[in-house]
Structures are given as structure tokens and as C-alpha cells.
Design goal:
homodimer; alpha/beta; Nucleotidyltransferase, domain 5; 5-stranded mixed sheet; 13 helices; globular; Euk-type_GlcNAc_Kinase (chains A, B); ATPase BadF/BadG/BcrA/BcrD type domain-containing protein (chains A, B)
């Protein structure tokens, strides 16, 4: 029997899956972050090796080698990062063949079951990735928290802090964000935010964790928060549309899968995201992802191993995953983007 | 003879001045940065001690003690930072009495010759500080590069990088900023910006040094750059207005001094800044600063030492500074803010 390994290596956690080439998922384990941009090369290597070992152990199978390993890693965004990560991975001897992809690409693989379409991933960061019927690929966004990731949890949190600072100064409108952020961060005075941000060096992930406060304030009809979320939704719509245009998909029936923690249903963010799609790509359909990104990595590894994609194979993957995955639905419910508005 | 010491401790350099209580400036030296937020406590202490020593040497005077030392330090923005900096300064034994102020406050002292008014300082960061006729003080902005400093060189540079990334993705309008930034940073491909920003850890100061590129692109009629500068000017207008409102100065004749590298005359930034002032505080007048901030520190130290502010004193300071200061005019040319438009 031959095996494949799929991994979704993120900034806050990693998910690893071992499957055989018949589509039986043998294990799924979660482990620590593996984004080398944040934790460095050495720790990233350790994190990946640790994840592989745990996934093999959990599979209760004697695996000496994986036919194909597909790793979708956050931070795989340039030739330089590819070279760095390839150096890390080539030291791991259990992989016969390695595919190193950006995490957005495995996101698309999982969301659509390896079909063409566009995935928009909005978590701590934000990026869109697409593939058209001709197999051409494109991406947009994902330039990181300093100069991009518009619409991400980091971006929304940062805008919320700016709005709170402006309200504090009397420069901006009063907003619930000021007291709510102070409470969330246990600040007696808002000025203490400076100590927290610049001295205690709050990580981008820690800062991004303020996003739920913005959703909560918006629900309480805070106008400033509502505007931040609407703006974030528009930005996420724009990253999707940029990919659709680059791949000639904006005027065809195209599936768009929003994934990541920022796409909570029924929020202003979700609605303004859908509004931008409807305006610029009216024939696209918003889909609920079939599988989580780590399964996308497994599917891409199976494809690379020459395994034929039959209904039976997909069903077997879905069945053997049951009870292991909680984040995604297993049914592909496709809806036109304007039905949300 | 008794002496005072004034210092403008910034993020990129520091300026120290020694004067006697008759208003004779005995020395003016420039030295390295002293913002403890950036370089740490130990180095900040060393930097201040070094500056004091050099200023004494350059004065060619035997000075065992300063009657008053007034230090205006970037990063003096909360009780915590006051306590940290007070700990540093109290170890320096040549100061009989120490005044520790935010650098914006000495900026106002220098710009107006210790009179009431508002100073807006837009360099790497951006902050406004004001004092009304009743001696009440207020500030706005200056929350640092992560959540504030709107209108600063950092903010403008960051927006330029975001616009370049959007143009690269096809999300945003084409802009000259993309090729011009690539040239300024010697990037063969724009994707290399990720390596530069996140791995080589470009400092906020280094990132802020892209601001001149934006001014240049705007002069070449690049629409995206023009919008960034107009928006920056508006933000700087808002920090000034917030201070004016807080101090009840928006409906009285009030002098506003724009200082720092972002206020180049005849630019869109300057014009949109003046436009906001005219709209919200029509009786304010834009002034050219009389003295640089380090002289403001000296003036505040002299005031604290009980020295009377006569025309003779001010003239003596101006005369004895000649040839030492190049950054500011010595004449106070006041103009109504709407004459700029």
C-alpha cells in the first residue's frame, strides 16, 4: 500500500493528514504553527517533522515513506521563501516527492474538491487564489500585515484600534470600540495600549484577536465598527475579483469559496463581500467549502500520485474523515452570491 | 554663571543645546537617536549621556551643573514611559532640575517662542500639541506607526506600498508608485518586498523613507500618489483641529505651526492640511516656526529657571544661534491659513 501526506501549515496551527491511495484517511492531527516567517527556519523544520511523526503514529500504520507529500504553507509567497522551505523539506527523508504550495492553493483544492474556482481565505491574513478551466492559476492579496491583508482579522483589528485612538483624541467619531477594546485588553487607560503594542511586542496574531470585538460592537449597532466590517468585506471582494479578472473568470459561472474565521454568515462583512462579487462577477456562485485546506493538500497529493478522482474516492475520503473534521461541511451547498443580500 | 540644557531627542537624531541664563547659546550638537521605544533603555541612557557630554565640550565652558535641563523626547507618551525615562535621567548627575516632556511640547515652545498656539509635527510619526492662553495643554495623534501617526512619513509610505501591491495584483489602479518603489528599493520583482519587510525587518524609519517617492510621483501627476498626500494632509488637519477643540481655540485667533519633513510648501499635503484648518478653525493663522524644537527646550528650561522673557533675551538667543541652526527661519512670518490655497 502507498500513502500520501497532506499538511496545512498555518500561522497559528497546522493540520496534517495521512491517507492511502484508495482515499482512506488514516489520521488527522493538529499541531503548532509552522509559518517560517513568524517562527524561523529551525522551528518551522521541527514543527513539520513533529507533525509528520505524530500523523504517522496516529495512523497506526507502518509507514516508511510517502509517495507524495503536499504541504500548503502560509508564507510561501516568493521564490525566496520557496527556496528556504524546499531546503527545510528536503531534509525530511520520508517524502519521495514533495509539493510545496501556498496555503491558499490547498484551500482551493479542499473547498472545491480540486476543481476550478476561487478561494478567498480571510483569517489573520487575507489572500485569494484561483484556478480556471485551463488550469491557469492566479492570486491576489496576501502581502502580509504591514502592507496588505486588507479585510483580514489583523486589518480589521488595526482599523478598530485606530478608530479607538481617534475617538479618544476627539479626532474621530465616538465608538463603542474604545471601551470594548479597553475591556478586552484590560487597559485601565487607553494610553497603556502603547506599552502593550510597542514594548510587550504584541504579535500580529495577538493583535488580530481583537476582530471578534469589532463584530460584537457592530451587532450593538456601533456605526464605526459597521463601517470597518463593510470596508473589510469590500476589500475581500476586490481580492476575489482581481483573481477572476486575471484568469478571465469574471463573466463565466465560477464558484467562489470564502474560508477563514472572518467569513461569519449574516454579518455586514459577508454581505458587502457578496455585494462586490455580484457587481463585478454576477454569474459567480458562493459555495460552502467541501473540505478543509488540509484535505485539499491530500487531494492534490493523490492527483500528483496519479490516483483517478472518482465519486467513490471522494465519498471514501468524506466518510473516513467523519468525526475527525469539525470545521467544514462535507456537503457542497452552492448558492448564487446575490441570494445572501 | 548658571546654565540650562535643552534637548530634542528624536527617533532618527537628537539635538542638544547649552545656554546660559542670559540667553547666550554656547553650543549646539547633533547626535544619534534617543527614543527608548526604538533603541531600548540602556542605549537611550547612553545616547543622552553622550549628548550632554558633547554639548558641554562644545560649549568650551566649565559646567559642573545645569540649573534646569529640559528634555523633549519622542516616545514620552504615557505615565509608564515617563517613569522609565525619569529612571534613566535621574542617574545623570549634572542636572539640578529635570523637565521631561514629549517632543511635541518643545516643538510648540520653539515654534512660538513659548507662547500659546498649536504645533503639528509630521516626520516619521505625527502628533499635534497645543497650549491655550490659560496654559491648558492638549495633544492628539502620535499613537505610533502601528495604530496611528496618520499623515506621517510612515503612514504615507505604508499607503504607497499598499497601493503598489494593489496595482500589482490588479486590485487597484495602476500607479507610478509600483515602478518607482521597486527602483527606490532595488527590487527586481515586487514580491521581494516581502523578504525585505518581514525577514530583513525593515525598521519603521527605513519604511518611512519612501515618503519622498510619493511626493515625486505626485509631482509627475500620479493620481494614486496625489490622493495619498491629500488624505495625509486632511489627517494632519484633523489632529490640529482636535487639539484646538479640546482647548477651546477653534474659534479664536490661534497660531498653528506645521513642523517636520512632511510639510513641504506648495504640495497637495500642505494645501489639504490648510484647507481643513480653514474649514474648522477659520481664524487660525499658519506660522513659520521661530526656532527649532531643541531651542524650545532651552526656552522652557529658562522659563523654569525663572528667567524673564524680554525682547533682548529672545534676540540674544537668535543672534547666538546664527550659523548653528539651518532648519528653521528666525523670523516669525505669520500668514492666514487660507492664503496658501
Amino acid at each position: 500500500m502507498t500513502f500520501v501526506f497532506g499538511m496545512d501549515g498555518g500561522a497559528s496551527k497546522s493540520v496534517s493528514i495521512v491517507a492511502d491511495t484508495k482515499g482512506n484517511v488514516l489520521s488527522r492531527v493538529e499541531s503548532g504553527p509552522s509559518n517560517y516567517h513568524n517562527i524561523g527556519k529551525e522551528k518551522a523544520k521541527e514543527a513539520i517533522e513533529h507533525a509528520v511523526q505524530r500523523a504517522i503514529e496516529a495512523s497506526r500504520t507502518k509507514i516508511a515513506e510517502f509517495e507524495v507529500a503536499c504541504l500548503g504553507l502560509a508564507g510561501m509567497d516568493s521564490q525566496t521563501s520557496y527556496n528556504v522551505l524546499y531546503g527545510i523539506i528536503s531534509d525530511i527523508k520520508v517524502f519521495r516527492k514533495v509539493m510545496l504550495l501556498n496555503d491558499a492553493e490547498i484551500g482551493l483544492g479542499g473547498a472545491t474538491g480540486c476543481r476550478h474556482g476561487i478561494v478567498v481565505n480571510a483569517g489573520t491574513g487575507a489572500v485569494a487564489f484561483g484556478m480556471n478551466q485551463r488550469g491557469e492559476k492566479g492570486r491576489s492579496g496576501g502581502w502580509g500585515y504591514l502592507i496588505g491583508d486588507e479585510g483580514s482579522a489583523y486589518d480589521v483589528s488595526r482599523r478598530a484600534l485606530m478608530a479607538a485612538a481617534k475617538a479618544h483624541d476627539g479626532r474621530g467619531e465616538p465608538t463603542l470600540l474604545l471601551p470594548m477594546i479597553m475591556e478586552a485588553l484590560s487597559l485601565g487607560q487607553f494610553e497603556q495600549i502603547i506599552e502593550l503594542l510597542y514594548h510587550k511586542e504584541m504579535s500580529p496574531e495577538a493583535l488580530a484577536s481583537l476582530a471578534p470585538v469589532v463584530f460584537e460592537a457592530a451587532q450593538k449597532r456601533d456605526k464605526v465598527s459597521q463601517e470597518i466590517l463593510e470596508c473589510a468585506g469590500e476589500e475581500l471582494g476586490l481580492v476575489a475579483i482581481a483573481v477572476a479578472r486575471a484568469l478571465g473568470m469574471e463573466s463565466e459561472e465560477c464558484e467562489v469559496a470564502p474560508i477563514g474565521g472572518m467569513f461569519r454568515p449574516h454579518t455586514l462583512l459577508y454581505k458587502s463581500f457578496a455585494r462586490v462579487l455580484r457587481k463585478h462577477a454576477p454569474d459567480c456562485r458562493l459555495i460552502k467549502p467541501i473540505f478543509e485546506p488540509a484535505v485539499g493538500a491530500v487531494l492534490l497529493a493523490l492527483k500528483e500520485a496519479g490516483v483517478e478522482f472518482t465519486d467513490l474516492l471522494m465519498e471514501r475520503i468524506g466518510q473516513s474523515l467523519k468525526g475527525r473534521v469539525t470545521t467544514c461541511g462535507l456537503k457542497n451547498g452552492s448558492i448564487p452570491c446575490n441570494s445572501i443580500l
